[in-house]
Amino acid sequence: MRKINTLIIIALLTISSALVGQNITKLDTKGYHVKFADNSKILVSTNSYTGVRVVDLNTKKETILSDARKSGKAIYVDGKVIFGDKTSATSINIDGSGKKTIEKLKKTSLRQVAFQMNESASKKISSELLVANSIDKLTAIELVYADGTSKIIRPLGKDAKYLQTEISPNGQFILVKQYGGNGYLMSNKGEMIVDLGYMERPTWAGNDFVTFQVTKDNGDIITSSDIYKVGINSRVRTNLTTKFSKIAMEPSSNSDGSKILFNTDDGEIYLITK
Predict the structure, then answer these.
(1) What gap in Å lies between CA 88 and CA 116, rounded to an integer?
(2) Which of 230, 194, 238 lies closest to 210 in space, CA to CA?
(3) What does the alpha-carbon distance between residue 2 and residue 160 come to, in Å, rounded to a whole number?
(4) How does pLDDT run across 27-84, given as a tens digit for each residue?
(5) pLDDT tens, residue by residue, 149-181
């Protein structure tokens, strides 16, 4: 009976992957480093992160927000797109209005800038985790809270390097990508390390899933790349592009995880829906 049940589960997972693969739609725009702003608008840049534009998925309207160098690394917070360099940061409404530029400290992250520029910042809970940054040449993580306090942690030991950190939408967990290795999950206090397995460019897909890419290369160029999704509780990894023939990279999810964007190596943009 156990063997039969196992076969049934494998079959269901295979069917599930195939069904997900059928819901991949090519968008009528091209670009790189795509990410969701809200459920109907996405941010798109060039391969070198120069410039950022917003694309409305419903109307197909495209609005150039900036042509500045590295503005393609912009983030979206509370209706505003924020980008910057080492000395300044610019905030602009998603419709292109209300542009505002302020000076910033070299090590201040864009999310910290967003918090400082947010008129409702004073309403946030003082103990709320605001930012999780990789610091000291990627050898530690700094947790910064809304009341201005912070602490330094090294959850994987002093020899580990933390390439990427990202707080879950509900603020309860932190996703950590080790340099050259696996993704890990921990609480917003820096505790409860859970190994999620090898992944590249991981990002939250809602509060219960993480989406990421896994690539293969021949030593010189990428030969294949797929987009995956893993449940933080089940640890089940599902290939979302198993039927997709091109190189799929840089996934980005909307807030509830029901939609995932990715681009190919030649700048085509696709949308995965349930």
Answers:
(1) 13
(2) 230
(3) 40
(4) 999 999 999 999 899 999 999 999 999 999 999 999 999 999 999 999 998 889 999 9
(5) 899 999 998 899 999 999 999 999 999 999 999
Q: Three-class SS string for 83-140?
A: EECCCEEEEEECCCCCCEEEECCCCCCHHHHHHHHCCCHHHCCCCCEEEEEEECCCCE
C-alpha separations of 81 from 53, 96, 124 in Å? 10, 9, 20
Residue 158 CB: number of other CB atoms within 10 A?
Answer: 7
Q: Which helix (H) or strand (E) holds 150?
A: strand 150-153
**For residues 211 and 78, what is the distance between their CA atoms, to the nearest angstrom?**
23
- Considering the segment(s) 31-123 as one domain, its CATH architecture is Beta Barrel (2.40)
Q: Could you tell me how far CA 272 lies from the centroid of its own chain?
A: 15
Contact 34, 254 (CB under 8 A): no
Q: Are 223 and 217 in contact (CB under 8 A)?
A: yes
List of residues 6+ apart from 47 with CB closer than 8 A: 32, 33, 267
CA 5, chain centre distance (Å): 35
Q: Residue 1 is encoded by which pair of tokens?
A: 């009976």
